Amino acid sequence: MYGLATDGSRIVFSHTGDDESGLVSFDPSSQEVVWTVHSLSGVSQPVIGGELVLYTNVDTGTIHAFDVEGGEEQWQYPTEDDVSAPPAVDQNAGRVFVVGPNSGLHVLELESGELLWSAELPGSKQPLVTQNAVLTTAGKSIFQVLREDQSTTEIATSGKSISPPLSIGSDQIFLTARSSEDSGALTCTVAQQT
After folding, report:
1. Is the N-terminal amide bond of 28 cis, ω within 30° of 0?
2. What's residue 11's pLDDT?
């Protein structure tokens, strides 16, 4: 098992084996497998958004959306990039946010997978979606793309390389930074939100 997601009534996880990779939906109350999707390459963290399970094929950079109830594929979106992080979902707005290291931020319609808009954005880490912006990291910096006008700004820097995921408090951004001098040590740093 590689990564898992839950919506409270089911668990979906990705797996890889000697001869196949895929997704499995499991019902914890009945202790039964509900559906499986085989032959997916590039194992990654699934994300549940509304009625869909989103899966990033890290080999091809393609985002796949499967029906959460039956596992049927609903749509695909090829980023044509080395996307390795799972997407973020804003269920209220019906949006999917995907970040690629070369192609920037892609904002998709959750229901159809249609590209709504994109923005240049350094970095390729898992995006964090707020009401007004999308945040991601690149190297020692945190970048913000405003949802209203798609403008990109560097909003914080650290003396250390920032690792995802980011988390937001009432007026702060919490992050994990890796020290180059002591590569095994992780520290928690706080940056003021702007």
Report:
1. no
2. 93
Distances (CA, A) of 192 to 2, 62, 81, 155: 33, 34, 31, 9
Bridge partners of residue 108, in order along the sequence? 96, 115
Q: Cα torsion for 7, 165, 110, 55, to the nearest 10°?
A: -70
Which pTM was predicted? Answer: 0.82
In angstroms, the first-to-last Cα distance of the chain is 38
pLDDT over threshold 60, residue 131: yes
For 8, 29, 104, the CA distances from 63, given in Å and listed in that order, are 23, 29, 15
In angstroms, the CA 54 to CA 67 distance is 9
Report CA dihedral (130, 133, 136, 139) to the nearest 10 degrees.
Answer: -130
